[in-house]
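Why should sequence recovery work at all? Because a backbone constrains its sequence more than one might expect. Tight turns favour small or flexible residues, buried strands favour hydrophobic ones, and helices have their own preferences. The token representation captures these environments compactly. In the example below, the structure is given first.
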């Protein structure tokens, strides 16, 4: 490199640019230099993008371009020290021109990659999922198969001159692209984490999770367009709708997890998503170990369910009602035919003869809906030994109570309430929705003659912010006295209660009415008809 004099330095430098550019263009034709430069670009991007660096390689942001420039500069400076290329100060302009062309050329590569993903997704949706797209959208097993196929296509498409990448890196690119195009984006890793009980997207797309009873900020963000795409894709799959005219939606994932989405302008700070996980419910042993249940209470519930008692599980939001329902449903005999009715497929009954029914909302034209009340009525014509209603919310309560009173014993269900007494009042109001002519007294008498037990679950928050869930009390509905006003007419027998020390203990015995019912269904009621300790 020529030295710059006091008066002719700029001229001397300028005269060297053209030869340097020619030398640089010649060196770029050599695969060895091209490979090293591409490797320098890849190294610069690996540090900032992890497994997604290949996507940034093909579609760099302004910051990525700066990182690429630093990587190329470092590579060329190292080469300059060996005498292979001119000094960086001389070849800076042609190198930057090459870098610009290099980045611009990636646009065509991006289009090809996206086309490849679109074609693969369309093929899998048509062949592998019957045109539904459900499994590809959310099932981890299906996405693994799609990723492997995309990785194979990418390995054929990417030559060594285009990209220096190993097979694991190409597979990482395929998984990233499939996750972004067919999966849940930034939510993907959280959906695969079975230890999480809640996944929440709040203001600004920030992702929060609940684990072991504690809510924490993950530090990750789901972009609003990605959140909107996720909601619309889910709505299309489950036959629902979400847009400006219908800004909220309740849905569910392939594993039964509930999803609630609400859009702006109702959600003031952006798309809000709440996912309540139901993929990995705790076992009976885990509930006992966590003090959610006790062995004695479990033994009683086993005898009650085996003895065809009608049981209603009450509790507030996220108190563990469905978890408890799943556990007590496991006490049903495997020789019985069980019909389940749900809004979202949350129940997992380990029984051989289970018929699962699900409600359906009306379509855009307002037709095609199938309500819970319709399902309850249909189930009565299907020769059920047991009827299990995932949750009663409205007029279907009347049909369920009437079914209990007409020989369909052993019914199980859940409902929202703040306690057993509150549950009885709410149940009466729900029944009146099904028959406005029904009086409070009439509804309460039907309830008392049909319902045997209420199992109430509570969700508690400790001083350290940890959340605990479990059975708070078990009561028997003995009878109804019409001479007392409202819900005060119910004669309620406490059987199990959780004291100030938060231990669930037996506090009473069953009535002769329930004892006779259980005895007629083959249950030895001696342990529950005699006071504890006698």
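From this structural description, the recovered sequence reads:
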């Amino acid at each position: 490199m020529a030295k710059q004099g006091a008066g002719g330095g700029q001229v001397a430098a300028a005269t060297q640019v053209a030869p340097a550019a020619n030398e640089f263009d010649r060196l770029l034709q050599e695969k060895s230099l091209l490979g090293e430069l591409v490797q320098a670009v890849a190294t610069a991007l690996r540090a900032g993008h992890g497994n997604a660096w290949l996507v940034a390689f093909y579609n760099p942001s302004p910051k990525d371009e700066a990182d690429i420039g630093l990587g190329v500069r470092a590579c060329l400076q190292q080469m300059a020290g060996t005498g292979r290329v001119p000094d960086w100060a001389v070849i800076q302009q042609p190198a930057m021109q090459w870098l610009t062309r290099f980045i611009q050329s990636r646009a065509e590569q991006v289009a090809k990659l996206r086309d490849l993903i679109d074609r693969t997704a369309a093929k899998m949706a048509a062949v592998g999922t019957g045109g539904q797209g459900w499994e590809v959208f959310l099932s981890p097993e299906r996405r693994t198969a799609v990723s492997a196929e995309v990785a194979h296509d990418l390995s054929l498409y990417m030559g060594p001159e285009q990209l220096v990448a190993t097979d694991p890196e190409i597979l990482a690119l395929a998984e990233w692209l499939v996750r972004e195009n067919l999966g849940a984006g930034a939510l993907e890793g959280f959906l695969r984490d079975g230890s999480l009980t809640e996944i929440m997207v709040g203001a600004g797309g920030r992702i929060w999770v609940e684990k072991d009873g504690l809510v924490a900020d993950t530090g990750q963000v789901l972009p609003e367009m990605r959140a909107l795409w996720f909601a619309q894709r889910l709505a299309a799959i489950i036959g629902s709708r979400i847009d400006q005219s219908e800004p909220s939606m309740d849905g569910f994932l392939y594993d039964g997890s509930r999803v609630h989405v609400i859009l702006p302008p109702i959600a003031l700070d952006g798309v809000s998503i709440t996912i309540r996980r139901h993929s990995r419910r705790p076992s009976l042993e885990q509930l006992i170990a966590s003090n959610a249940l006790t062995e004695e209470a479990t033994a009683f519930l086993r005898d009650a369910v085996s003895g065809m008692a009608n049981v209603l599980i009450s509790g507030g939001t996220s108190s563990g009602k469905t978890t408890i329902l799943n556990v007590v449903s496991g006490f049903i005999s495997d020789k019985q035919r069980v019909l389940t009715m749900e809004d979202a497929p949350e129940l997992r009954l380990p029984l051989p003869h289970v018929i699962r029914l699900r409600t359906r909302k009306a379509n855009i034209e307002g037709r095609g809906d199938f309500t819970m009340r319709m399902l309850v009525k249909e189930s009565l014509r299907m020769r059920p030994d047991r009827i299990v209603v995932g949750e009663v919310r409205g007029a279907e309560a009347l049909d369920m109570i009437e079914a209990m009173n007409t020989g369909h014993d052993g019914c199980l269900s859940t409902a929202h309430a703040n306690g057993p007494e509150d549950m009885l009042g709410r149940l009466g109001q729900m029944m009146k929705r099904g028959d406005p002519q029904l009086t409070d007294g009439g509804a309460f008498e039907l309830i008392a003659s049909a319902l045997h037990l209420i199992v109430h679950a509570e969700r508690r928050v400790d001083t350290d912010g940890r959340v605990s869930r479990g059975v708070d009390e078990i009561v028997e509905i003995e009878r109804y006295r019409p001479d007392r006003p409202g819900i005060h007419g119910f004669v309620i027998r406490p059987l199990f209660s959780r004291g100030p020390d938060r231990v669930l203990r037996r506090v009473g015995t069953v009535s002769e009415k329930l004892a006779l019912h259980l005895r007629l269904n083959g249950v030895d009621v001696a342990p529950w008809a005699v006071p504890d300790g006698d």
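A few observations help interpret the result. The domain at 185-276 is CATH 3.30.450.90 (Beta-Lactamase).
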